[in-house]
Each structure stands twice: as structure tokens, then as C-alpha cells.
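Notes taken during the Thursday session

The instructor put the following on the board and asked us to keep it in front of us for the whole hour. The protein is Inner membrane protein YgaP-like transmembrane domain-containing protein. We were told not to look anything up and to reason only from what is written here. First, the residues (71 in total):
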Amino acid sequence: MYIVNGKGSWIRLIAGFFVFVSVLLAVFVSNYWLIFTGFVGIMLMTSALTGFCPMELILKALGVEQRKISS
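Then, after some discussion, the predicted C-alpha cells were revealed:
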């Protein structure tokens, strides 16, 4: 899997997991977990608009390869 682009993007997988788990926690534990869901949504929009993604920086630091885009 690669950090960006393609169907196997780690960032999309992690964001989806965070949203899924936080919704489950909101249903079974506390509605305050929806704040975390909103935070994930805001970070996805920020990433789309600015290109800055903290999760991408974390994954790069962990050594996940970045896919080369061929033109």
C-alpha cells in the first residue's frame, strides 16, 4: 500500500477506520465521540484544499513508501 493515490491508500483506510470506530463509540459510549468524527472530516477537507495532511507526515516518519505519479 502507498501513502497517497490509488485504491489502496493508507490515509483513506485510516480515516475510514477512525470514523467507523468513533461512530460506534458515539452510539455505545458517549455522543462526545462525534467531535472526533468531525475532526477527521475537517482534516480530510483541509488535506483536499491545502495538500497538508498530518497523517501523511506520520506515515512517512514510519517509513511507508510514497507512490510515484507517472505523467
